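REVIEWER CHECKLIST
Item 1: Sequence provided? yes
Item 2: Single chain? yes
Item 3: Sequence as submitted:
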Amino acid sequence: MVDKPGFYKSFLIRIWSDKAGSKRRVMVAPVDGGGQHYYFATLDDLMIFLLQEMEEQTKGGMQNQVT
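Item 4: Structure as written out by the authors:
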């Protein structure tokens, strides 16, 4: 059995609300740079995004491999 290389992806996740009791907002930025920022209305949407990112890694798009 051949071991597949591991992978990792790092994100900065910012969660805030503008006023006490107001809806939370979420921003995600990949740590590897690129200047990309993703915004989400709910924590559920954030989790869907993170799960999709991990799924892309397992389908062969391994940009950040750990050997």
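Item 5: Key structural point noted by reviewer: Residues 43-58 form the longest helix (16 residues).
Item 6: Recommendation: ____
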